[in-house]
Here is the input.
Amino acid sequence: MEINREDIMHLGDLSDFDLSGNEAERLKEDLTGIIKYISQLDELDTEGVEPTYQVFEMENVWRDDEIKPQEASREQLLALTEEEKDNQIKVPRIL
Amino acid sequence: MRIANKTVTATRLVKDALAKAKHFEDYNIFTALYEERALKKAAEIDEKIKNGESVGKLAGAPFAAKDNFLTAGDETTASAHILSGFVSPITATSVAKLEAEGAILIGHTNCDAFAHGSSTENSYYGPTLNAHDKTRVAGGSSGGSAVAVALDIVEFATGSDTGGSIRQPASFNGIYGLKPTYGCVSRYGVVAMASSTDCIGFFTRTPEDMDLVMSIASGKDEKDMTSLPDYYNADDTRGGVVDTACPSDTLQAALAKSSCSAEPIVSATPPLRIGIIKDFDNDVVDAEIRGALKKKCELLKSKGHEIVELEMPSLKYALAAYYIIQPAEVASNLSRHDGIRYGFRSEKSKNLDDLYGNTRSEGFMPENKRRIMIGNFVLSSGFYDAYFLKAAKTRTLIVKEYEEAFKKCDFILTPVSPNPAFKLGEKVNDPVAMYLEDLMSVPANLAGVPGLAIPAGETANGLSLGLQLVGPRRSDRALIEFAKELQDE
Here is the structure.
């Protein structure tokens, strides 16, 4: 599987990275090597095998649908952000 | 474990730990030390002891937490720039439980950023040096915690193990490192990496210490929906090994049945059947490590145990499957780091879209970016079936091979990594070479079974050698008990 410059820029977009020219070139090389390695699964026969997504082996961990006091207050959480106004997080303009 | 009592004060223990931490400063072990608070807590414990009041099982024992364990009021960054300035409002459940028994946190330890790595070289704060050779890596990703315990600075340290991040640095520094059964210790308050394989565990210098720490840290936490009921402490006999009458293929039914109870899978008596994996006995593994494995097998036989050769042909594909599943989960978990709610925010952004791109580009380390991009690649349409789904199916084969293996043996003994500690800089620019470090540790994570790294002597050059014992799910305590027996060499 060949991966080209365009693929890298697309993956950069999906990942919300602003990649510089040199960085994209380096990533192209690195990702090509990694994809080559993980592609060895091709040789394994998995016909008819069900996938496993988790190994916890418990389903439906229920709890009552009630609001419990939270450890962190709204003030504490808002204090973590760069800028807040009227109890809300302020961000740069969108457009 | 050194614990405060009438003759040794907690203040003495904490002062010694802090002095040693400073003495070994050039190893770059700690990202932060909490001197004032630790001494204050120590004084409180000493006062209680003086007044004859009860103190916890870990009273005054200094410990360290990997930098991805949140502690209220402290900057916790997972050694990643993108979390710079993040002061946590909460404390990880595991840390809180240990503190409730009197253990005293003296600092946070260095790790690969977001636990992405096998050498602690991917840290924003630079690499941690190996405890026995300063020209070599500490291993990783929990390198700082491993070296803090190996150099006798703290009594124990926390770590997280998603693909080997506790066991490999433990073996590189000659100590014990446990990756428990998936769900045994609460993950609440630990920076998420790959949620389906993330495990919280510990570093200690003896199996007895590991047992003590695990008896406190394990158990159900309502803040972590994937935490298991406390099976670790369910039986006080503390001598058992895996019940061979309860083979692993019945585990699923047993687990479903016991979801409300907490029955441990322990009992039965020696001789034990110890499995070794033929597929790992090849040139990929360093000759001295294979030598250590053979030596340990001889010791086991001399003690009356039986060695069973296992064929587990899917295990050689575990690493490829892991480096698909884990980046996929990483891409999802790390999408929350966008500079808006907490942590680092890039200064130079004109609008919101710019802010996301600049913050994530400047804030993540190169290895974080590689994993996020690979994750987005294997999940993207057109590649999902060929990569992610294929890896999930491979995972099924691996789980089944363990189930079959544990019908034939009680524990499996394997190397932890293909080589002892390597030179600083040797692999950091070659991602695939670094991933190969995890070759023999990731299978346990994919299957959710416990793995315990145990010391196994030294190389001719004085580097630590380690091996790992792997058992069926919920056999954590039996593994530790067995390790106690193995240390009498």
User: Anything to note?
Assistant: The longest helix of chain B spans residues 385-408. Residues 31 and 236 of chain B are 38 Å apart (CA to CA).
